[in-house]
Every structure is written in structure tokens, then in C-alpha cells.
Design goal:
The protein has 223 residues and is mostly helical. The protein contains nine helices and no strands. The chain is globular. The model has no long low-confidence stretch (mean pLDDT 88).
């Protein structure tokens, strides 16, 4: 059948349904799962384990599993399983971070941009390379810059891991943007790097939230 939804360098002209349809994209998605499991392993060691971070870690695992299935099968339900957990994770994590460093009205404005942009992408075409995927990434990066700037005077260690999250997100966005151009040089393109670097950014984001006070208390070595 003809491919639908986002297409990448690895996407074949006809989908035969044989797993994995996009090998590099599917296999690299396991990195997302690994970072989600690592987050859960760290959070479970906290006393008490904060349920919000457990939820975020679980969403990261679910996003990774959805990405594996989307790139492996290219079905509509797999695309939903890929995208929905990621959107919820980004909105919730950004909200939790912002609530520690900014007034509520600014938090609401940031969330409106983060949540509203993906919905607009369903109805409006824009003549940009990469389309709405790049615009969504740009909004995310701008929100990250604002959050890091707000965090720096409040909590420098959290600002550092937040800045690292932003840096990895920028590298991931570059890989996502250059995927089509990379086809001329490497058969698999560069979308797989989007998975690796963006999941690294997500893990740095989890560490940022822990440093901002959502992490509870680690057990002592004797515990």
C-alpha cells in the first residue's frame, strides 16, 4: 500500500507490512525505550517514588514502543501510539518545570503554544522545509530557552541539565530537518539520530525535574 503520514528517507514507495519497514528508524527507537526504563529505575529508588516522574518515565517507554511499531509497521494506530505519549510528556514536563520558575500566566501561555501548534498542524499547510514538524520543534526550542533562562537564577544545577536537554534537542531537530538531504549520502538518512538525541534530551529533562524538587529523597547506602 501507499505510505501515509510522515515520510522519511527510509520510507519505501510501497508498504509491504513486513517488520521492520524502516529498519534504522525502528531499531533506533529502542533507545527511547531504554531511556524511559532508566528514568523509571532512578525514580523507583527515590523515597517515596514521585508518581509524576513515574508517569513521565512510563510515557517515555510508551513513546519509544510506539515509535518502534510506527517505523516497523507504518500503521495508523502505531502512529498514534508514537505521537500521543510524546505530546503528553512534553506538555506535562514543561508545565512541571515552568511551575517551579515562572508565574502561572506565563506557564499557561507557554502551554498554549506547545499544545496548540500540533493541533494547527493538522489543518494548515505551511511552505517550510520539514513543515510543521520543524515549526513544532522550533516552538519547543524557544520554550526551552525561556525555561533555562528562568531557571538559572533559581537553581543552577537544574539550569545546567536543562541547557543540556535543549542542546540535545537542537541536535535532534537538525537531524530531523536534514533527513531528506542526507539520503544523497547515506541510505538510511538521519531520522534515526532524531530518536537518539531527542530521547537523550528527554532524559536530561527528567534529571532537571528531579533537581527542581520533584525527585523526593534518595535512600541512603545502608537502606
Amino acid at each position: 500500500m501507499q505510505p501515509f503520514g510522515p515520510t522519511y528517507c527510509e520510507t519505501p514507495a510501497l508498504i509491504d507490512g513486513i517488520f521492520p519497514v524502516e529498519p534504522w528508524n525502528a531499531i533506533s527507537s529502542f533507545v527511547i525505550v531504554a531511556y524511559g526504563l532508566l528514568t523509571l529505575a532512578l525514580v523507583i529508588r527515590l523515597r517515596p517514588p514521585p508518581w509524576l516522574l513515574l508517569l513521565l518515565g512510563s510515557l517515555l517507554v510508551l513513546n519509544g514502543a510506539g515509535s518502534v511499531l510506527w517505523h516497523g509497521l507504518r500503521t495508523r494506530w502505531a502512529l498514534t501510539l508514537d505521537v500521543a505519549p510524546a505530546l503528553i510528556l512534553v506538555a506535562l514536563a514543561a508545565f512541571l518545570w515552568a511551575r517551579k520558575v515562572a508565574p502561572l500566566w506565563q506557564v499557561a501561555l507557554m502551554l498554549a503554544l506547545l499544545v496548540g501548534t500540533p493541533f494547527l498542524a493538522r489543518y494548515i499547510d505551511i511552505p517550510l522545509p520539514g513543515g510543521w514538524a520543524i515549526l513544532r520543534g522550533g516552538v519547543l526550542v524557544l520554550a526551552g530557552i525561556w525555561l533555562v533562562a528562568r531557571t538559572l537564577p533559581v537553581n543552577r544545577p537544574a539550569a545546567l541539565t536543562g541547557a543540556l536537554a535543549l542542546l540535545f534537542a537542537l541536535v535532534a531537530l537538525s537531524a530531523r530537518t536534514l533527513d531528506a538531504e542526507a539520503c544523497a549520502h547515506v541510505a538510511q538518512g538521519s531520522h534515526f539520530l532524531w530518536h537518539i538525541f531527542l530521547s537523550t534530551a528527554a532524559f536530561m529533562l527528567m534529571l532537571t525535574l528531579m533537581r527542581l524538587g520533584y525527585g523526593g529523597v534518595r535512600p541512603s547506602p545502608a537502606a
